[in-house]
């Protein structure tokens, strides 16, 4: 029989982790409170509380929300806390920050709860080139979580991976 082509990658103990597989569905919303401020800069408590009371919070059902203010206004901490109280019954998560910080927060929980014991003493490839908005911080968190378990850690695809770590 002529030289048979053997797929060494398929036959190896190489484990691949794709962070896209853990991406939770749900709308991501950047909630900018600038429109609830007097002239976009001053938070008047009574007016702000009226806006909060009259807002339809149910529109954020099953969404992930990042609270922000895109102007240079100084927003007291209680304002974001008040918004989060009204959002909490509807949303999957609420943070103060931008959409990148929101994704990092989502992935932090996912990675913290990820059981990596199956990866003990295995070579691992963390797949890159995500089509979904997987934050760079998620790759760092995953690498740090895997390091104590993995035989080696690489990034990319099996055919063209970049070595990152090898246990001594």
Main beta-sheet annotation: 4 strands, mixed
Rg (C-alpha, Å): 22 Å
Strand content: 15-25%
Please identify the structural class as seen in this structure.
alpha/beta
Number of strands: 7
Determine the fraction of residues in helical runs and give it as a percent range: 25-40%
Unreliable runs, pLDDT <50, ≥5 residues? 6-11
Averaging pLDDT over every residue, what do you get?
92
Instruction: Give the helix tally.
Output: 5
**Outline:** elongated
| SSE topology string | HEEHEHEHEHEE
What's the end-to-end separation, in Å?
40 Å
The overall number of domains is 2
Q: How are the strands of the biggest sheet laid out side by side?
A: 1-5-6-7
Q: Could you explain how this protein is built, in words?
A:
This protein is α/β, with parallel strands linked by helices and 168 residues long. The chain folds into two domains: 8-24 and 115-166, no CATH class; 28-91, no CATH class. The protein contains five helices and seven strands. The chain has helices spanning 8-11, 45-54, 77-87, 99-112, 136-146; strands at 15-17, 28-32, 64-68, 93-96, 123-126, 152-157, 160-166. A four-stranded mixed β-sheet has the order 1-5-6-7, covered by helices on one side. α4 (99-112) runs parallel beside α5 (136-146). It is elongated, with a radius of gyration of 22 Å. The model is unreliable at 6-11 (pLDDT under 50).
């Amino acid at each position: 029989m002529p030289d048979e082509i053997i797929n060494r990658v398929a036959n190896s103990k190489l484990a691949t982790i794709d962070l896209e597989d853990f991406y939770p569905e749900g709308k991501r919303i950047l909630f900018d409170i600038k429109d609830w401020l007097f002239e976009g800069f001053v938070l008047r408590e009574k007016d702000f509380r009226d806006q909060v009371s009259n807002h339809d919070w149910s529109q954020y059902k099953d969404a992930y929300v990042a609270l922000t203010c895109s102007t240079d206004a100084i927003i007291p901490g209680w304002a974001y806390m008040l918004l989060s109280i009204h959002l909490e019954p509807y949303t999957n998560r609420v943070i103060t920050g931008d959409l990148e910080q929101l994704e990092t927060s989502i992935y932090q929980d996912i990675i913290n709860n990820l059981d990596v014991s199956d990866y003990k003493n295995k070579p691992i490839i963390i797949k890159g080139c995500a089509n979904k908005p997987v934050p760079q911080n998620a790759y760092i968190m995953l690498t740090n979580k895997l390091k104590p378990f993995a035989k080696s850690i690489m990034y990319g695809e099996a055919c063209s991976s970049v070595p990152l770590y090898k246990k001594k």
